[in-house]
Amino acid sequence: MNATKPFYSHESDSKIMLKKDKLEVRGWTDDLEHVNEEVEYLLQLYDLVPYGLDLYQQLQMIRRENQLKLGALYRYEATIRNAAECDTTACDAYYLHNHEKNRNLYLDHIKGYRILKTKVFKKILLRTKRGTQ
After folding, report:
1. Any idea where the domains of the chain sit in the sequence?
2. Average pLDDT for runs of 10 along the chain of length 133
3. Own/partner pairs for 120-125, CB < 8 Å, 24+ apart?
4. Pairwise CA distance, residues 106 & 117, whole Å
């Protein structure tokens, strides 16, 4: 089975790292776009099976945070190309630090979203089980 190679041996390490970073950020933004979609479905489920104002407000808040993080990642993605112009270690370190900061923000957001989504599903299951008894 031949897998396509996104990187080539004739490319410089810095060019490979830029490609890797762009691919990673694209994956993050795809995930956050999907979170937007899921939150909309969860809010629609709320209309069918109200599961508490606190969770509804948390969903509203996560939706807003998701939009803000998505915007920040799109802006960050646009700045990645500037890293190609780095000619000092300090410049490289700045972009590396910035990438790690964005990765951690993304991971923390996804973790919080998953915890909230699990709470919502548990509440929905609890309410629907009560309704069928």
Report:
1. 13-132
2. 58 80 96 98 87 90 98 94 86 92 97 96 85 59
3. 120/42, 120/45, 120/51, 120/55, 120/59, 123/51, 123/52, 123/55, 124/45, 124/49, 124/51
4. 16
